[in-house]
Design brief:
This protein is α+β, with helices and mostly antiparallel strands.
Length: 540
Amino acid sequence: MRSVPRVTWAAGAVLAALPLAAACGSGAGAAGAGVLSSSWGDPQNPLEPANTNEVQGGKVLDMVFRGLKRYDPRTGKAQNMLAERIDTPDSQHYTVTVRPGWTFSNGEPVTAHSFVDAWNYGASLKNNQKNAYFFGYIDGYDKVHPASGRQRADTLSGLKVTGPRTFTVRLAQKFSTFPDTLGYAAFAPLPRTFFTHHKAWLDKPVGNGPYTIASYTKGAQMYLKKWDRYPGPDKARNAGVTLMVYTDNNTAYTDVLAGNLDLVDDIPASQLKNVTSDLDGRYLNSPAGIIQTLAFPYYDKAWNTDGARKVRTGLSMAIDRAQITRTLFRGTRTPATDWTSPVLGADGGYRAGLCGTACSYDPAAARKLVKEGGGLPGGQVRITYNADTGSHKQWVDAVCNSVNNALGDDRACVGNPVGTFADFRDQIGRHKMTGPFRAGWQMDYPLIQNFLQPLYYTGASSNDGTWSDQRFDKLVDRANAETDRRAAIRLFQQAEGVVRDTMAAIPLWYQNGSAGYSDRLRDVALNPFSVPVYNEIKVG
């Protein structure tokens, strides 16, 4: 674990920030009996729901908040949670009714205003929320969050509170699957204290989920305590969760074996050959809605030319995905042949083989395309990745070895490590990438739209490389407006074809969720997002 300045969220006099020595101790849990410990990484940003778009922060939000919808931890299907009902006559105008009896952990009731005020805050340009784009479907977004110029309105004209538990949503265009997106954390409700005492809320977030945040020591751990008065059906079956910061998953894995940690939810590649015997049945390996890709900085002119398109395709064909997944990942990865995930199924938009020959290993074709494209920009590819998990270096080295062998140049590709995930994301956000960079995507909700629009639509929230293509945007707009599900999926697949034809990003492999746990735990499972279902885990 790395040593950094400490920042604390304290739960009054009940629990102060735990000392680092305790955080590194026994998996029995320094916070008390019935508490499980799990590996984790510091979030990139304060835990505002509309400003969290990375996995580590998302794990916390999933425990601390509940929205209108929740994704079934087994199937991923969107199910009503705080939504009593969501009605629409035309897939553009929606009426939402909030269930009665829900409160935040501070006792404040959850009302229609809790959602509308939160969404208006998330959409507002002046609040600079990373997930603002998710509110872009709602009428008035162009005034609240204009693409250029000053903000011309403070609230979305498409949102209107019509009663204590009811509000209406008017979209700018038809979007038939809009209700299914509402389980994503950006759409979570917020209490009044978020707005009236914002700094205090950031110091100690208050939500409406089955856990409350008791303390946080940056660089060490976060302790989440079971909320005993939680009104939902998915109550915590343990006393709490201590999320322990690790900068190397190999260390987390060995701590599970030594009894110093209860759960590691990403088994390092170097341990896969031993994990079954090491953990004696306490190992999970299940399909998840995750794809790993290499993204590119299109704000760098060297990568934003027609020749660079050929270079990207050539690099894709220089990667021996089958060999890397077989020898390095041992059944926890599958070579990608499209830009979505097999967990969607054919009915959900997954189309095996859509990438075609561009995702097939062909050294001769790779060399030809790179040469035709004018060669590697700068004469060398430097793949940037965060080095704090201990697992990315291995596959980046393997990819570079494959590229070097295919191109016949042992200096064509090298890894470019960045110390921590937070630093890595910060550099990406400031457009500091000069070549390809690691870009894993874990679905927010199980729709083909979620694998495409947030990543490749012009100006989208997670379009880190700023790729843009009007053909893609128009097909996505048409797909979102289509009320027939099958017709919508066909349009999304056509949009995915544009991604393929320009090799907007290089798909590498689909990732299973993996986890290992101690003999203290029971009923451990991963959801389709590869996140442990913490509230269902039993201790002892």
